[in-house]
Amino acid sequence: MARSTHTVSGDFDLTMDELRVVARYVVGHAEEVLPVFERAVPDDPRPRAAIDAARAFVNGANRTTSQRVAAFDAHRAARSAPSEAARLAARSAGDAASAAYLHPLAQAAQVGHILRACEGPRSFRTGTQ
């Protein structure tokens, strides 16, 4: 993969490569808990599609509407999930897809999808859901 020098500007700058590193981190957490959703709702492919869209970006694809659409779809799947654990897993997948659109602003609200995607897996490991 060729290094990208294109930057995304805000309160600080991120290159596309740096944004991919952030997205890779979030995808890893979302993949960890995806089986929770898939066991609860085996016929709903939306969270898996969100992770696949995020993974494509991580692997060098351009940011496209596919990440945004997949993120919204996974969040819709979360709303209809039968348990809190399944909801968190689907939300993590949606947050992974939306990580491609992280805005480099030094405000916690702007990076909520990064922080939430990692919180769900932590609560599964510690039992603090």
How does this model look, in words?
The chain is elongated and about 40 Å long. The C terminus is likely disordered. A two-stranded antiparallel sheet has the order 1-2. It contains five helices and two strands; from the N terminus they run E-E-H-H-H-H-H. It is 64% helix and 3% strand. The longest helix is centred in the first third of the chain and has 25 residues. A hairpin with a 5-residue loop joins strand 1 and strand 2. It has 129 residues and is mainly alpha-helical.
Question: Topology of this protein?
Answer:
Blueprint: E1 7-8, E2 14-15, H1 16-40, H2 46-58, H3 65-79, H4 84-98, H5 112-126
Antiparallel strand pairs: 1-2
Helix pairs in contact: 1-2, 1-4, 1-5, 2-3, 2-4, 3-4, 4-5
Low-confidence stretches: 125-129
Please state roughly what percent of the residues sit in beta strands, choosing from under 5%, 5-15%, 15-25%, 25-35%, 35-45% or over 45%: under 5%
Average residue-wise pLDDT:
81
Find the count of extended strands (DSSP E, 2+ residues).
2
- Radius of gyration of CA atoms, rounded to a whole number: 14 Å
Q: How many strands, which pairing sense, and closed or not: the largest β-sheet?
A: 2 strands, antiparallel
Distance between the termini: 38 Å
Residue share in helices?
55-70%
Q: Give the strand line-up of the largest sheet.
A: 1-2
Helix tally equals 5
Encode the helix/strand succession as letters. EEHHHHH
Which structural class matches the secondary elements? Answer: mainly alpha
Indicate the overall shape: elongated
